[in-house]
Design a protein that fits this description.
Strand content: 25-35%
Shape: globular
Structural class: alpha/beta
Largest sheet: 7 strands, mixed
Number of domains: 2
Helix content: 25-40%
Strand order of the largest sheet: 1-8-7-6-9-10-11
CATH architecture of the largest domain: 3-Layer(aba) Sandwich
Length: 316
């Protein structure tokens, strides 16, 4: 069944309802009825991390000791460390179906099918969103690739581009999922009529712990004919969530981008910690993860990507 999100009030309702779910919760303590207990709400903070070498290739087989984790410049104890290849993966695929990208749509669909076939396992799930003047959830989360292929065949083009809306609503859908959460958005980078702001889209992705990968189709090489402002906004949200952006002008470049995303998702790390300070001290906490190249036995400089931080208050 297709779900079409049109009214702004529904956008707010969907995401507010989704905030009730969290990926990782601290263990509950037994309560002694004879005592008055003051409970402090301290959440386990998940930091999904990608490490790449000087050639951009993922660095695997790192250990907990190779990492240093800081919150607002203060060292944090890493309570959970896992290599992520075994955790369930939930992927929201957002495909731009506006008129500005119509000629590239068949390429996007073909490449997306190959990507899903290569990465989705029985424990994983993929959901398909399309966006033009509206955002349509064409396919809810499923591991059935035949359903995804049928849904992709029925994609229809629209007029305008509601990019921030699909980021917002895709994050809302991922909020209720467990394990790793990823959004892959294929678009020309423009936003012409979203009902939510860029700021709200970023916050939604951060709170959902969604890693955003953006693939920007370039129909016009000259910058004068492109929405470079929209491209830069999409690139920034990818950086803020620990993802990455790619440019593509052909099917080959689309496939190459998807293959790189595939490789990264198979070699991610999960670092989780309990903040050493109470969550009410500030609304946004900055996260930094460091890796010592020598200790990790990596030749040359390395790059560490992860979400830039998290919000301590609920979305309003």
């Amino acid at each position: 069944m297709t779900m079409r999100f049109i009214r702004p009030v529904l956008l707010a309702f969907v995401f507010t309802a989704a905030l009730c779910a969290q990926v990782a919760q601290p263990p509950q303590q037994e309560q002694d009825d004879s005592l008055t207990t003051l409970k402090v709400d301290v959440k386990l903070v998940n930091v999904f991390t990608t490490v790449t070498d000087k050639n951009g290739s993922p660095v695997a087989d790192l250990s907990k000791e190779n990492f240093e984790l800081l919150e607002d410049g203060i060292d944090q104890k890493i309570s959970v460390f896992n290599r992520e290849s075994e955790l369930p993966l939930s992927i929201v695929m957002g495909i731009d179906t506006s008129l500005s990208i119509k000629k590239d749509l068949p390429l996007e669909i073909e490449s997306a099918k190959r990507f899903a076939a290569s990465i989705v396992r029985p424990i994983d799930a993929v959901s398909l969103f399309t966006f033009s003047e509206y955002v349509d959830e064409v396919l809810p989360f499923t591991s059935n690739l035949q359903k995804l292929e049928r849904a992709l065949k029925n994609v229809r083009t629209g007029a305008a581009t509601a990019l921030y809306d699909v980021l917002y609503l895709g994050s809302s859908a991922l909020m209720k999922r467990q394990g790793r959460k990823v959004m892959v958005v294929i678009t020309d980078g423009g936003d012409t009529m979203s009902r939510v702001s860029y700021k709200d889209a970023v916050r939604a992705a951060q709170q959902a712990e969604a890693i955003v990968y953006s693939i920007v189709m370039v129909p016009i090489e000259a910058s004068a004919g492109r929405d470079t402002g929209g491209e830069h906004a999409l690139i920034q949200i990818s950086r803020d969530t620990g993802g990455k952006h790619y440019y593509a002008t052909s099917l080959g470049e689309l496939d190459a981008a998807f293959k790189q995303i595939d490789r990264e998702l198979r070699t991610q790390y999960l670092l989780a910690y309990y903040p050493s300070r109470r969550l009410a001290e500030s609304d946004f906490r900055h996260i930094e993860v460091r890796v010592n190249p020598k200790a990790a036995e990596v030749d040359g400089p390395i790059k560490v990507r992860h979400r830039t931080g998290y919000y301590t208050s609920k979305f309003e």
